Fold this sequence. Notes:
By secondary structure, the chain is an alpha/beta fold. The chain has seven helices and five strands; from the N terminus they run H-E-E-E-H-H-H-H-E-H-E-H. It starts with 7 loop residues before the first helix and ends in a 6-residue tail after the last helix.
Amino acid sequence: MEISAENDANCVALAEKWKGSAKEETDFLCLTIGTGIGGAIYLNDALYRGRRNQSGEFGHMFSEHVTSDSAENHKFNKTATLAVIRQKYAECMNIPFQNVSGEQIFEAYDQGEEVASLLVSDLYSGLAMNILNLYYVFALPTFYIGGGITSRKTFINELKQRILEIDPAFCAVIRSTSFGNQSGMIGAVYHHIASRKTLELI
């Protein structure tokens, strides 16, 4: 039995290029939003891997000024993820973290609950700011966003709205990935086949 391995966010990008909306694109970025932030860079019709295969680690970007002894707390992974707002919501509402889901927070947000509204607003602002930073570094035409949060039908439009509120000059396309939580597995299949060259890729 042959085994191959690839970064999960890279697999999302490979799935998008192989069978998704990026079939005809040569340059795009992927972000995956979950307990942390994953990323992949597709340039000149190939994954860009960088030194030691470390490119696309967007979650390790500093997204705010470091004001504490723990620099990690000021990285994208710690400022704009579902895990972050779940933790803050649990603390504000005095309930166990494990009893709080992202879906619950967004339902409360839709109902106008004050705590949920503040946290979701902060989440959108954090995501928007970091996407804008990536946009001005790479100047790529399309961003694909993956992760369970994209199952919210209004998520992409709400994110676009926040981006444009911050910077109306933003003109890239924002799309959700084509295969939801299956993207990583589809991309992993592509990687395995391509790395072994055992089948013709269609």
